[in-house]
Amino acid sequence: MTAFHPALIQLGVHHRPEGLSDRVAYGFVKLLRFCADTFFAKRYGHRAVVLETVAAVPGMVGATLNHLKCLRRMEDDKGWIKTLMDEAENERMHLMTFIEVAKPTLFERFVVVAAQWVFYLFFFALYLVSSKTAHRVVGYFEEEAVISYTHYLAEIDEGRSPNVPAPAIAKAYWDLPDDATLRDVVLVVRADEAHHRDVNHGFANELAGLPTGEVAPCPPHAELQPNWRKAA
Ligand SMILES: [Fe+2]
Ligand SMILES: [Fe+2]
């Protein structure tokens, strides 16, 4: 088995929208993309901080609602709950990493609070109405995340964003070498997003009765312990 390398992931994976549910999900994500592009332009650090606060919501909502469903129906979750909780934790670690790279403005902090109110309630309701559409939304969301982090890499490689040393929290979480840089961090984050993309499109497919497809491997993550920050 060859070792995992975060640069060797499938970048251009796209689920072609089929049917109303997929089209609604795709249209919604494209609208959000337009808003994000307009608001952040090329401020990729700020973009990452704000969008990761949103990206960490669906996994926890999906985990909660699947947990409750399994309790009601007294049935097995087929591993979905842990997968979705891992996704939420992973997205929160993206946030904890990028907050070390870019500090949000006061206005961005306001946007984060407002967006959480709206998005949490919206996504919760969507998941209740159609978990298939909800997972498809996340799949498309993650397709866009892979594209955005690829743009961020180009910014770094072309010298428009400084390739600063990797934050300590990122080195501990992804087990990166001591001399790791922001570029290494963006690569592993992008690989995480590709993994979420395939997992969520796979869940949507499973709910639609379609073949689930391949899932990009995710980089190894440190187990978070209660006192892990001290150990880092
Ligand atoms: Fe993320
Ligand atoms: Fe993600």
TrEMBL record:
Record localization: Membrane
Q: What Pfam families has UniProt attached to this entry?
A: AOX (PF01786)
Q: Could you say which cofactors this protein requires?
A: Fe cation
* UniProt keyword terms in alphabetical order: Electron transport, Iron, Membrane, Metal-binding, Oxidoreductase, Respiratory chain, Transmembrane, Transmembrane helix, Transport
Q: Quick one: where is this thing mainly located?
A: membrane
InterPro entries recorded for this chain? AOX, AOX_sf
Gene3D superfamilies membership: Alternative oxidase (1.20.1260.140)
Any transmembrane segments, and where?
Answer: 110-129
The entry's protein name is Alternative oxidase
